[in-house]
């Protein structure tokens, strides 16, 4: 049977972080097989707070796996009812000082899971399948992380990260395949969110209430996440100028 292996991960782990000696060349340390394709990127963090790193892997076999970074052993496994394609995002959603994670699933659900055991904190059924990764940030300034995710019904949706309560929704004109980008693009000290859609548009919103700031047609289908760049390299200055770069299917 064809195996879908997690193996490159161990080549990228800083070995000193695992208590090992430096080596000049990477080596294959362990492998882990899932039952279907892995289209997301692995995420490395100490999810159970024991001072040792774990690796989060999602698969189209409907599962999220938390693996010991040192051995590849399964710490926990969460089974959804649909393939998972996006990369998980990690943060302390419920304020207990322990890491949690967010994933979107092709069964239309977004799940908030406890990092230490994979138990559901909250879940929400969106109006379409979720293939992209979520984004995380405190968009309403209440001190708790919030979550923004795109779904196959062309909606961009923001949630209170602690409760999963809906903050706002916005229907774009096309499918959103890339993760929403969070950043302050209009220099007002408040976060904005930017997405590209398959209907050739780039949308920018006020991340707090989902109000549209602007929308432009770039003439090409957009399938990846936008990036934000500080063009004049003045760091956190309030007058920093940032540009948004949207990938286009043509490669231009
Ligand atoms: Ca750990
Ligand atoms: Ca937590
Ligand atoms: Ca918040
Ligand atoms: Ca702003």
Features:
single chain; mainly beta; 4-stranded antiparallel β-sheet; 1 helix; 2% helix; binds calcium ion
Would you give an account of this structure?
With 252 residues, the chain is mostly beta strands. It is 2% helix and 37% strand. It has 1 helix and 20 strands. It has one helix at residues 8-12, and strands at 4-6, 32-34, 43-45, 54-58, 63-68, 74-79, 89-91, 100-104, 109-114, 120-125, 135-137, 146-150, 155-160, 166-171, 181-183, 192-196, 201-206, 212-217, 227-230, 242-245. It has a 4-stranded antiparallel sheet, with no helix packed on it. A 4-stranded antiparallel sheet has the order 7-8-9-10, with no helix packed on it. Strand 11 and strand 12 (146-150) form a beta hairpin. It is globular. The N and C termini lie far apart (39 Å). Mean pLDDT is 87; it is low at 8-12 and 236-241. The site of one calcium ion has 5 residues, from loops. Residues 46-48, 50, 52, 54 line the site of one calcium ion.
Give the structural class.
mainly beta
Low-confidence stretches: 8-12, 236-241
* Rg result: 19 Å
The residue fraction in helices comes out at under 10%
């Amino acid at each position: 049977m064809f195996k879908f292996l997690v193996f490159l991960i161990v080549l990228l782990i800083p070995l000193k972080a695992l208590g090992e000696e430096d080596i000049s060349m990477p080596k294959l340390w362990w492998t882990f097989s899932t039952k279907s394709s892995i289209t997301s990127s692995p995420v490395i963090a100490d999810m159970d707070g024991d001072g040792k790193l774990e690796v989060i892997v999602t698969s189209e076999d409907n599962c999220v796996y938390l693996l010991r970074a040192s051995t590849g052993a399964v710490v926990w496994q969460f089974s959804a009812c649909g393939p998972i394609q996006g990369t998980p995002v990690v943060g302390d959603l419920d304020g207990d000082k322990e890491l949690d994670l967010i994933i979107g699933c092709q069964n239309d659900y977004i799940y908030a899971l406890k990092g230490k055991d994979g138990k559901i904190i909250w879940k929400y059924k969106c109006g379409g399948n979720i293939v992209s990764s979520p984004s995380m940030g405190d968009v309403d300034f209440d001190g708790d992380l919030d979550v923004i995710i795109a779904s196959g019904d062309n909606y961009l949706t923001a949630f209170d990260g602690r409760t999963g309560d809906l903050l706002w929704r916005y229907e774009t004109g096309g499918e959103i395949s890339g993760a929403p980008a969070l950043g302050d693009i209009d220099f007002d000290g408040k976060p904005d969110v930017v997405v590209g859609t398959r209907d050739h548009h780039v949308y920018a919103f006020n991340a707090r209430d989902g109000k549209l700031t602007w929308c432009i047609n770039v003439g090409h289908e957009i399938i990846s996440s936008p990036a934000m760049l500080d063009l004049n390299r003045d760091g956190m200055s309030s007058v920093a100028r940032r540009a948004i770069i949207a990938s286009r299917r043509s490669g231009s």
